[in-house]
Amino acid sequence: MRIDLHCHSTASDGTDTPAELMRAAAGAGLDVVALTDHDTTRGHAEARAALPEGLTLVTGAELSCRTDGVSLHLLAYLFDPEEPALLAERELVRDDRVPRAHAMIAKLNALGVPVSWEQVERIAAGGTVGRPHLASALVELGVVPTVSDAFTPEWLADGGRAFVDKHETDPVEAIRLVKSAGGVTVLAHPAAAKRGRTVPPDAIAAMAAAGLDGLEVDHTEHDQDTRTRLRGLARDLDLLVTGSSDYHGTRKTVALGENTTDPEVYGEIIRRATGAFPVPGTGGA
């Protein structure tokens, strides 16, 4: 089985619609794909309707969190999307993204970059607005050559010249909320240093004590030494090890299935989940 547990659609900052993503996942030879848009489950219904036969959908979301001044992302799988407390927290995080984007645009304008809200809104195309949309605007304007090049201290990285904080959930509280909604939690790209400060091991240990299920070890932004170190940490903390592409369509160069999750780990994720179940494809549109 080929299992990719971290993908994005136009419901947040990917460039494929949920339906296009499902077809692309099948075309890439995947057996299982997770849709984990940022702080939203808005793309799930379209993805379900478009599931090709032979492809299984894992519903999820990537939750924005912060601890001790460090931003981090928590992958949440197979939770009940209507559970009130988790739904309210996701909405709070999403609602703060628009004023944050306006504030970052103002900072960019002050730096001489003529980005506008209309441009960012067009790029987001109805998805949950985030820094990748501003990064794409900088690419369009010729300020940086790629989206990744926008995530530097000069521009949009944590603490960068155009960075603005947003509401982000404490990860221990996020883990509690996801668990209460019957879901499973995995810390996304825990050592992706290009994005800014990373979460220290003692903070990951605190999350493990709070019920964190796993670490996303095999990720395009982790080199081999980093993966070896993270595997050791996961072993010490009794955490599952996952792998995934973190696919964003054309917004990033990574391909679907570039990293994958072991079928036994996937089976354990399913076993632990009580809020929802994987959706088998029966031949969608």
Distance between the termini: 23 Å
Rg for CA atoms: 18 Å
Overall pLDDT score: 95
Q: Tell me the series of helices and strands, N- to C-terminal.
A: EHEHEEHHHHHEHEHEHE
Strand content: 15-25%
Shape, please? globular
Largest sheet: 8 strands, mixed
Q: What structural class is derived from the secondary structure elements?
A: alpha/beta
Helical proportion, percent range: 25-40%
Give a short overview.
Helix content is 36%, strand content 15%.
Fold and architecture overview:
The protein has 285 residues and is an alpha/beta fold. It is 36% helix and 15% strand. Helix 5 packs across helix 6.
Features:
10 helices, alpha/beta, eight-stranded mixed β-sheet, 15% strand, 285 residues, single chain
